[in-house]
Each structure stands twice: as structure tokens, then as C-alpha cells.
Amino acid sequence: MSIQNVRIAFNSSMRVLGKGIWRDLVNIRRYKLRLIGWLMNMMIGLGAAYIFGVILNFNPITTSETGILSTQVFVFFAGGIALSTFSDTALWAPMGRVQQDIHYGTLEAVFVSPTSRIAYLLSPTIADSLLNLLFFIPSYLIILGVHGVLTDGYIVGTTILVVLLTIISMISFGLFFAMLAILIRRIQPIAIFLSNIFQFICGAFVPVQAFIGINKTGGLILKNIAQIFPYTYCYDLFRYYMFGDAYTTLFPVWLEYVLLVASSLLFVVLAYFLLKRVEKKAKQTGLSIL
Question: pTM of this prediction?
Fold first, then answer.
């Protein structure tokens, strides 16, 4: 492919991406209750984190394995809930777009046209992430204020970096599930189940390092499974920068960044192969929209 063709393809993808983002941002005005739902979800999450912080304490094994103090329980849970907002967006936005086009019967047109399918699936993720920032920032400031690091530029900068990495890494996961949604169709119940399992395994509400305290054999198995997913390292790095050197990470920080990138690329490759299979099916036999 010549440089000119690459440039044309890139410009076309950027137009598709830009118009898709603009469309989703404009359409949100028709669904104002969705914004209210996001706000209520964040408020309920912070409220639950506060209750957990008041009534719960980590056991000695968890404290020794992670370095988290009993006074930091609220920050631990609140950070996990806030970060889950973006991971859910990256996971569900591409699948939501596919389900919507299946409903309206427009999916097949997308996959037999020269339009960039990746840009088509990325646009709802970016649009929803921009909207989620409206609700994440207030809760994020509350977490920083409670932790007493609101004016610490290093902590603010590094945790925001981890948030951005979370969105990017989970996009690959979202694309993977979106392709499965086309091939398998009724995958949403399975995806909901897997999403909840992943949140638990990857450390949203229980530190992965502490699994060994639940059960030695089972905890080790869960810990090894968690290390496959980029989600795990996003949580771990976020808490490392929030709690400082007192927090014990799963691996050295530099290695977690390497594993985060590597596991994200793994799901990108899987999504790419599934995308090619979907494109081939669309061009040869059609997608048989139901």
C-alpha cells in the first residue's frame, strides 16, 4: 500500500471517528435520563464506599500483603468504583453500538462498506468517556480530598495517567466482546456475568494480593488468572500512586506497565482476528441480521 493510500485511509478513519463522536455527544441530549443514571450510579458507589470505609477493616493478611491501612478503606473502595466507571464504558460502548445497529438493521451495511470498522466501534467509547469525565472529576476530587492529597501534583498527574491507560486498555477488551456479539449475538447476559467476575478477580473490591488469605490454593489460582487481564494492573497502579510506596504492588511498577501494554495488545490481536472473520462473513454470506 502506497503512502498516499495510507494517508487516505487514515483521513477516512479520522472522519468516521470524529463524526461518530459528534453524533453520540449530540444524541445524549435526547436521553437526559442516561446522564441522571450515571450521576446516581456514581453517588451510590461513593456512598457504598463510605459505608464500607466505616464498618469494614482489612484483615491482617490483607494489610501485610498490600500495605493498606484500616484508615484507607474508603479510598480503596472509592478508587475502585471510580475506575470501574471508565472500564465499563470501554467494555460496553462498542457492544452497545453493535446491539443498536443489529436492532435497527444497519450493521450489515457497516461491515460491507469501505468504512473503518475500528473507528466505527471506537467513537461511542470516546464519546461516553468524555461524558463520564463530568461525573468522574467530582468523585475523584472527593477521593483526593479525603486522602489529603488534593494539592499533590504528582499523585494527581499519575492517577489521571492510569485512568487514561484504563480507557485505552479496556477498549481492546470492548472490541473483543463487540466482535463476539456479532458472531454469537445473544452474548449480553454472558458479557454481564463475565464483566462482574472480571471486576472481582482483577481487584476492584478485593486486593488481588490478598486472595491468598481467602484460600491458599484457590487464591493462588485466582491471582494467576487476574494477571492475564490489563484491568488488574490498572487497579494496582492507581492504588500504588494513591497510597505511595507503602502499597505493595503485584510486580515491580515498570513490569506492570509492560504487562499492561502486552495484555492490552493481546486482546487487540484477538479482536482483529475476530473482526476479519466478521468482515469475511459479511461479504460472503451476510450477517443475517435477526
Answer: 0.81
Pick from 72, 105, 112: nearest CA to 284: 112
Specify the amino acid at residue 168.
I
Query: Which whole-number Å values give the CA distances from 12 to 18, 269, 282, in the listed order?
Result: 10, 22, 21
Instruction: At 189, list the grid cell.
Output: 447476559
Residue 238 lies in a domain: yes
pLDDT tens figures, 30-81: 777 777 777 777 777 777 777 776 777 776 767 777 777 777 777 888 788 7
Is 289 within a domain?
no
Q: 89 — phi, psi (to 5°)?
A: -60, -50
**Single-letter amino acid code for the residue at 16:** V
Q: Tell me whether residue 117 is in a domain.
A: yes
The cell for 207 is: 486486593
Q: For residue 185, give its domain range.
A: 3-284
Domains in the chain: how many in total?
A: 1
Which 8-state DSSP code applies to residue 245? G
